[in-house]
Design goal:
There is one protein chain. The protein is an all-alpha fold. The chain has a domain at 10-82: Orthogonal Bundle (434 Repressor (Amino-terminal Domain)). The chain is built from six helices and no strands. Helix 4 (54-68) packs across helix 5 (72-82).
Length: 125
């Protein structure tokens, strides 16, 4: 596997490799199982407009590199050098992983229907 040719803009190099394969943008997207806008973002040097985090961008870029027959590790390293994206955009609008749940004063644990037998009652039966 080769890497992105050096000395050229990163996106231009990806586009040239794709075109050498004879693939149009839509055909490459289908072949790599990626949305067209992801590939267009890499080739136009504007991944920050599409991806919320560096990790997502790098994962999809590695997949695209594999499709193009390039070494995904080298391509991702070249991408990091060219595009120092933040780890995550704070204004991404993504929900928090953990939200505070107000306590109701009851005991923790699953609720049971009124009149349903308890575990202890089932064991006795």
């Amino acid at each position: 596997m080769s890497s992105v040719p050096s000395g050229r803009p990163f996106g231009d190099a990806l586009r040239r490799v794709r075109e050498r394969r004879g693939d149009a943008l839509r055909a490459a997207a289908t072949g790599a199982s990626l949305p067209v806008r992801y590939i267009a973002a890499f080739e136009s040097e504007r991944p920050h407009l599409v991806f919320r985090s560096r990790a997502r961008a790098e994962a999809f870029l590695a997949e695209y590199a594999r499709y193009l027959g390039l070494d995904p590790i080298r391509v991702v390293r070249a991408f990091r050098a060219r595009h120092p994206l933040p780890e995550a955009r704070p204004d991404s609008g993504a929900p928090a992983l953990v939200e505070a749940v107000p306590r109701s004063g009851g005991t923790a644990g699953p609720r049971r229907r009124a009149g349903a037998p308890t575990v202890a009652a089932r064991r006795r039966a």
